[in-house]
């Protein structure tokens, strides 16, 4: 999911760190430290010197690139999925691993604590029938093998949260996470559904008009999964579909985009649709907005900003932050014959972890008849809390 | 108006009160004696108690909600364990900690604890780390982003007079990097420590990949399994409560030593009580005789004397507790510094009261007073109405008691010696020492009589009438000034004994330093020089100017079951070095070490494991358990837990560890400064390599030593004070005893000046006599402290070196105190017409 330009992820990471510290200082959570100060603290916000940049298309090689790319500033492994039990209870989940370098990597330091790499992970489960969403975040540096990633056999982990290939092949793969405080846990086996698709231009996904302001981006849009899920006291046997977005790059933050809306939808007819629109300060979609449609056989068709429209239909205002989130969308892809509604399965899937965002399970309805034609995930960022 | 009914006891007490009101000096001395004894015990106890309480407050900040911690006894944990705990054991709330002490250039005489952690992980235990005073999150983030940035506690920042943004230079560890103050931590008042990111601390101390401990939250269900799994790898899982217990265990010897020394002060105090109470009884024997004639029963008189003693004790205790509090608050700093120096545990200089400490001191003091009052009370109650009026009867009885005292002394001495010869427990050893001291005290009056008679004989021979007179007159009164003289003797003996012990210990440490740190330049090598760096490093070493030879060493934790001790692998330079110091010749030791699976063990290790030369010690090596033969014992003061040493080649063969910690360079004659300068330049660009002047290091060790013994010096000074008080007491008694005599002398035509001279001669003799008795007793005390107490407490052996200076000091103290204290009563004596003295008594 190319939802966010790496810089914005950086901003999110910084802010997350800030809030992490903030929470411990027992200062009201609504106050957030100014971002400029934080980027200043961590050093290299402006300086992209010494990092690799994503410049020319066609460099992605799998399985090598399932592993980490420490020469780039930021990177993530973004798993989302919709699951259901035998008796049709539905759940959504998100398990994301971020890697971020706080300064340009030099020779590997003798001491792992001096490594510039920081890992962050977000883990969320939505109990749709129970109308409840729980989320938790963790941070770690790679010292002591506490966090890290490797390519063959593939693994990425932070503590006991991990995605790990069960053999030399990328799939099947085991996805595990567990958190005692929120009492949620996930243990899934992912299998191969469709081949990986390279997003953007042969994997090179532009984030702005300047060269190098781009990232490498590929997706595994449909991985059948089964396993167990725990939400509070109950453990469930579950099965469903999982979507993986992989992205890494080094980008500078422009005044360009203020936020974005992203969807990854798995349709019952076997097609998978990914769309994102970058918004400017007025809320208008920017020309870098794009997407792709992968058919049942795994063949990808690129979509540009002129190929689709996304319009909010309904809003939910968070009682916690006062933010007004568009939780229902009209999505049209005329030349693919798609007229869809995407509706939040649970309105409150707000994630006030650090930077404020909304990431959650959606139901996909047919725009003409209204019947459900698929499930998916929606992510929205850059919506400001209403000032009191 | 009714007539108030007065009980016999009231009457007696009123009599007692009047007596003390007429002799305020006596009263003051007694109360001061008790107060000083109590104060010392209370102060030492409170200081130790506060240090213990504060110990935990320091690490509390980082520990947060941790329930357990994991450590490698005597060593460091490889941080890969952290990944295992988090991943395999699914214990996300596992927080790595590296704790070491450092010294700032701004405050070279004092070490500060650095607590290093991962700020990202510390929040998982809800620690106070985020609680920086600054209103932004910046300082905590900076710990990770900026190498060398640290947080200081408020108290420490005030002490060093620094604020956020200031830079701090270090002198220990040597200047690897400067530290920058990123912010302040509002920790508990008085807490002084530095918080840093692990990256900073591991580089600073040259310990990449190593941790002191891991704080963690372990669910009960997992506890036993985790403990077993970790134990098989030499790691120990302890509860937070056990950590405090461990602190107690570790500092136990230190605290027992302090307490025993403070009890010694109380013992002297008790002698003062005894001498005062018996003196007042003697003074009032006529009154008691009169009261008995009037019908007062024996138990009544007995009760009065005991009650009086208790009143004295109560007032003395009250003052003692108050003064002890003041003194204790002053000592907390010393105690916590010493604990920091000796045990590398951080402690806070925060003073707190402990009801138990106060209760204990008051209890011991009251018991001592009661015991001290027992004999005089018996004597008073046995006064018959008739004999009470007669002086001679008392003299006779006192003389009769002499053999009894000598017998008691022999019994006590024998008992003490038996206890000392057979005990292996520190508490019993101190009990033995007390018995020996009591024996010496009981023997003192008899010895003084013998001495004064010898002086009198000398006076007769040399035709020195006045000398003979002064000595005989003193001997006659000694039956009653005896207790005070004994108190003086004990105080001077304590003064001497502690002084000799400290002096001997210091000389031993100095001597040992010259053997063990005999190089000119010390180089500390970070454990992770990469191969190419390593090659370059050795190449540069060999080209250093003025280099005669080098000794290489590697120090690790002894990898056995509870691995409490250190293991030193060393490649000693055969010509240049002098290490180790042992009874076995050095050449022989070095030859044996390089010949096979042979080790040498430090004395504490030999004692703790019961190892003799020729015994085998099993060590767990990566290749399995190997039996090493003990070739010799060597002297080492670096660890009371013990140290084993082997040849570097043997170590490398068995432990598959090629690293070196320390390189000691020996310079050609006269080249040490050039070598130091050259080493500094040549090795400047190796990160983490520290070059230190070995001479400076030796100075540091002695500085720490001196600080460690500051408390002991304080106790010694108190003993000296008590000695002065005791002699005042003794001389008061002596003057009153001889009033009639001096009255006679003056009536017979002696001038006031002559009487004063005789009086001073007598008090000087008394002081000198007590001092002379105190010398052998003090030397015995020192010998026992060195060869019994220190062996038991720390396993250290040291030389017994009575320093003439200390002995002379004691004699001068005793004599000068005698003369000075005699001056005042002598003046009082001649200020009255002789008739008053003649009529008195």
- CATH homologous superfamily heading of chain A: AttH-like domain
Taking pLDDT < 50 over at least 5 consecutive residues as the criterion, the unreliable ranges of chain A are 1-46
CATH fold type of chain A: AttH-like fold
Query: What is the residue-mean pLDDT of chain B, rounded to a whole number?
Result: 77
Structural commentary:
The complex is a heterodimer of chains A (388) and B (841). By secondary structure, chain A is mainly beta. Chain A starts with 5 loop residues before the first helix and ends in a 7-residue tail after the last strand. Chain A is built from 2 helices and 23 strands. Chain A has one domain: AttH-like domain (AttH-like fold, Beta Barrel). In chain A, the strands form 2 sheets. In chain A, strands 1, 2, 3, 4, 5, 6, 7, 8, 9, 10, 11, 12 and 13 form a 13-stranded antiparallel β-sheet that branches. Chain B is α+β, with helices and mostly antiparallel strands. Among the domains of chain B are: 201 residues, no CATH class; 150 residues, no CATH class; 186 residues, no CATH class. Chain B has 27 helices and 21 strands. In chain B, strands 1, 3, 4, 5, 6, 7, 8, 9, 11 and 12 form a 10-stranded mixed β-sheet that branches. In chain B, strand 3 and strand 4 form a beta hairpin. Chain B starts with 7 loop residues before the first helix and ends with a helix.
Describe the SSE topology:
The complex is a heterodimer of chains A (388) and B (841).
Chain A: H1 6-24, H2 35-41, E1 74-85, E2 90-101, E3 117-127, E4 132-140, E5 147-150, E6 155-158, E7 161-165, E8 173-179, E9 184-190, E10 197-198, E11 204-206, E12 214-231, E13 234-249, E14 259-267, E15 272-279, E16 290-294, E17 300-304, E18 309-317, E19 324-333, E20 338-344, E21 350-352, E22 356-366, E23 372-381
Antiparallel strand pairs in A: 1-2, 1-13, 2-3, 3-4, 5-6, 6-7, 7-8, 8-9, 9-12, 10-12, 11-12, 12-13, 14-15, 14-23, 15-16, 16-17, 18-19, 19-20, 20-22, 21-22, 22-23
Chain B: H1 8-22, H2 24-63, E1 68-71, E2 77-78, H3 80-87, E3 94-104, E4 111-117, H4 119-122, H5 138-145, E5 149-153, H6 154-160, E6 167-168, E7 170-172, E8 179-185, E9 193-197, H7 198-204, E10 210-211, E11 213-216, H8 220-231, E12 236-239, H9 240-250, H10 252-283, H11 285-293, H12 298-343, H13 355-381, H14 391-422, H15 426-461, H16 465-516, E13 521-524, H17 531-542, E14 547-557, E15 566-571, H18 586-595, E16 598-602, H19 603-609, E17 616-621, E18 624-634, E19 643-647, H20 648-655, E20 662-667, H21 672-682, E21 690-693, H22 694-708, H23 710-737, H24 739-747, H25 752-794, H26 804-830, H27 834-839
Parallel strand pairs in B: 4-9, 5-8, 15-19, 16-18
Antiparallel strand pairs in B: 1-11, 1-12, 2-10, 3-4, 3-7, 3-11, 5-9, 6-8, 13-20, 13-21, 14-15, 14-20, 16-19, 17-18
Helix pairs in contact in B: 1-12, 2-10, 2-12, 2-13, 2-23, 10-13, 10-15, 10-16, 10-23, 12-13, 14-15, 15-16, 15-25, 16-22, 16-23, 16-25, 16-26, 23-26, 25-26
């Amino acid at each position: 999911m190319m939802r966010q330009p790496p810089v914005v992820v950086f901003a999110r990471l910084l802010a997350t760190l800030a809030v992490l510290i903030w929470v411990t200082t027992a200062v009201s959570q609504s106050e957030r430290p100014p971002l400029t100060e934080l980027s200043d603290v961590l050093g290299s916000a402006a300086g992209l010197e010494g990092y690799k940049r994503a410049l020319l298309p066609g460099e992605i090689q799998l399985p090598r690139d399932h592993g980490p790319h420490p020469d780039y500033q930021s990177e993530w492994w973004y798993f989302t999925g919709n699951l259901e039990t035998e008796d049709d209870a539905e759940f959504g989940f998100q398990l994301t691993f971020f890697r971020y370098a706080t300064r340009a990597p030099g020779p590997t330091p003798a001491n792992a604590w001096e490594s510039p790499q920081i890992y962050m992970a977000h883990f969320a489960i939505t109990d749709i029938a129970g109308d409840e969403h729980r989320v938790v975040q963790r941070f770690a540096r790679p010292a002591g093998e506490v966090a890290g990633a490797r390519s063959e056999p593939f693994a990425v982990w932070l503590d006991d949260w991990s995605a790990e290939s069960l053999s030399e092949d990328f799939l099947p793969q085991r996805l595990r996470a567990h958190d005692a405080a929120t009492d949620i846990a996930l243990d899934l086996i992912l299998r191969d559904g469709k081949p990986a698709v390279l997003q953007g231009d042969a994997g090179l996904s532009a984030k702005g008009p300047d060269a190098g302001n781009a990232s490498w981006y590929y997706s595994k849009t449909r991985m059948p999964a089964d396993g167990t899920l725990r939400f509070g006291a109950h453990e469930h046997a579950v099965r469903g579909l999982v979507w993986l977005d992989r992205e890494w790059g080094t980008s500078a933050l422009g005044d360009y985009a203020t936020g974005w809306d992203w969807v990854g939808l798995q349709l019952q007819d076997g097609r998978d649709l990914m769309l994102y629109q970058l918004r400017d300060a007025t809320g208008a979609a920017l020309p870098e907005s794009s997407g792709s449609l992968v058919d049942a056989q795994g063949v990808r068709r690129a979509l540009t900003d002129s190929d689709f429209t996304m319009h909010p239909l309904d809003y939910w205002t968070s009682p916690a932050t006062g933010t007004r989130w568009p939780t229902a969308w009209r999505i049209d892809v005329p030349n693919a014959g798609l007229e869809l509604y995407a509706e939040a399965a649970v309105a409150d899937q707000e994630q006030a972890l650090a930077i404020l965002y909304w990431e959650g399970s959606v139901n996909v309805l047919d725009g003409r008849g209204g019947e459900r034609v698929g499930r998916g995930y929606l992510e929205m960022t850059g919506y400001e809390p209403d000032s009191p | 108006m009714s007539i108030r009914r007065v009980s016999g006891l009231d009457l007696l007490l009123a009599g007692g009160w009047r007596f003390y009101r007429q002799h305020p000096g006596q009263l003051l001395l007694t109360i001061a004696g008790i107060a000083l004894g109590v104060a010392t015990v209370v102060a030492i106890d409170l200081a130790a108690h506060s240090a213990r309480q504060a110990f935990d407050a320091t690490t509390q900040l980082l520990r947060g909600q941790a329930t357990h911690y994991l450590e490698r006894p005597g060593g460091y944990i490889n941080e890969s364990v952290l990944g295992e705990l988090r991943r395999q054991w699914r214990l996300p709330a596992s927080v790595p900690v590296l704790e070491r002490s450092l010294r700032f250039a701004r405050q070279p005489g004092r070490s500060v604890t650095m607590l290093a952690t991962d700020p990202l992980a510390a929040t998982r235990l809800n620690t106070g780390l985020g609680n920086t005073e600054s209103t932004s999150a910046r300082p905590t983030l900076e710990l990770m982003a900026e190498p060398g940035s640290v947080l200081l506690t408020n108290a420490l920042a005030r002490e060093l007079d620094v604020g956020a943004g200031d830079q701090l230079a270090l002198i220990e560890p040597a200047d690897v990097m400067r530290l920058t103050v990123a912010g302040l931590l509002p920790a508990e008042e008085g807490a002084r420590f530095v918080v840093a990111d692990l990256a900073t601390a591991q580089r600073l101390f040259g310990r990449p990949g190593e941790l002191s401990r891991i704080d963690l939250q372990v669910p009960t269900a997992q506890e036993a399994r985790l403990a077993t799994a970790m134990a098989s790898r030499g790691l120990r899982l302890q509860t937070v409560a056990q950590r405090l217990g461990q602190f107690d265990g570790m500092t136990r010897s230190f605290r027992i030593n302090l307490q025993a020394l403070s009890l010694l002060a109380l013992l002297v105090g008790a002698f003062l009580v005894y001498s005062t109470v018996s003196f007042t009884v003697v003074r009032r024997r006529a009154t008691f005789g009169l009261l008995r004639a009037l019908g007062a029963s024996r138990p009544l008189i007995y009760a009065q004397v005991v009650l009086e003693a208790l009143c004295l004790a109560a007032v003395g205790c009250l003052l003692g507790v108050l003064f002890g509090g003041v003194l204790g608050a002053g000592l907390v700093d010393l105690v916590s510094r010493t604990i920091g120096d000796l045990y590398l545990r951080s402690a806070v200089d925060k003073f707190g009261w402990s009801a138990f400490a106060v209760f204990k001191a008051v209890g011991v003091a009251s018991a001592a007073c009661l015991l001290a009052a027992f004999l005089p009370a018996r004597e008073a109650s046995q006064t018959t109405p008739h004999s009470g009026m007669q002086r001679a009867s008392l003299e006779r009885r006192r003389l009769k008691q002499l053999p009894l005292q000598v017998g008691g002394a022999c019994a006590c001495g024998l008992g003490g010696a038996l206890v000392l010869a057979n005990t292996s427990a520190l508490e019993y050893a101190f009990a033995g020492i007390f018995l020996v001291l009591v024996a010496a005290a009981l023997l003192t009056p008899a010895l003084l009589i013998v001495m004064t008679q010898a002086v009198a004989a000398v006076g007769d021979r040399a035709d020195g009438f006045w000398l003979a007179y002064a000595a005989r007159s003193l001997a006659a009164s000694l039956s009653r000034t005896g207790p005070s003289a004994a108190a003086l003797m004990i105080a001077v003996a304590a003064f001497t004994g502690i002084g000799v012990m400290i002096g001997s210990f210091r000389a031993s440490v100095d001597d040992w330093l010259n053997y063990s740190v005999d190089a000119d330049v010390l180089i500390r090598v970070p454990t992770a020089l990469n191969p190419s760096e390593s090659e370059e490093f050795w190449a540069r070493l060999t080209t250093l100017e003025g280099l005669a030879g080098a000794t290489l060493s590697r120090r690790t934790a002894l990898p056995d079951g509870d691995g409490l001790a250190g293991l030193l692998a060393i490649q000693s330079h055969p010509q240049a070095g002098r290490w180790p110091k042992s009874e076995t010749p050095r050449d022989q030791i070095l030859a044996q070490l390089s010949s096979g699976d042979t080790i040498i063990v430090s004395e504490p290790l030999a004692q703790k494991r019961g190892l003799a030369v020729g015994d085998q010690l099993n060590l767990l090596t990566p290749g399995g358990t190997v039996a090493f033969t003990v070739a010799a014992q060597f002297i080492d003061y670096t660890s009371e837990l013990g140290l084993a040493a082997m040849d570097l080649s043997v170590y490398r063969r068995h432990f598959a560890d090629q690293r070196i910690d320390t390189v000691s360079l020996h310079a050609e004659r006269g080249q040490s400064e050039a070598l130091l300068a050259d080493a500094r330049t040549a090795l400047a660009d190796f990160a983490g390599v520290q070059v230190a002047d070995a001479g400076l290091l030796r100075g540091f060790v002695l500085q720490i030593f001196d600080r460690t013994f500051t408390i002991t010096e304080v106790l010694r000074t108190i003993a000296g004070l008590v000695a002065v008080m005791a002699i005042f007491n003794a001389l008061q008694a002596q003057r009153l005893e001889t009033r009639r005599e001096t009255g006679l002398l003056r009536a017979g035509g002696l001038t006031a000046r002559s009487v004063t001279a005789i009086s001073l001669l007598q008090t000087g003799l008394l002081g000198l006599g007590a001092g002379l008795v105190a010398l052998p007793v003090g030397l015995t005390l020192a010998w026992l402290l060195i060869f019994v107490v220190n062996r038991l407490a720390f396993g250290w052996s040291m030389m017994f070196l009575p320093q003439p200076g200390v002995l002379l000091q004691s004699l001068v103290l005793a004599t000068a105190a005698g003369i000075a204290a005699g001056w005042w009563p002598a003046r009082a004596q001649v200020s009255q017409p002789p008739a008053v003295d003649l009529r008195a008594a």
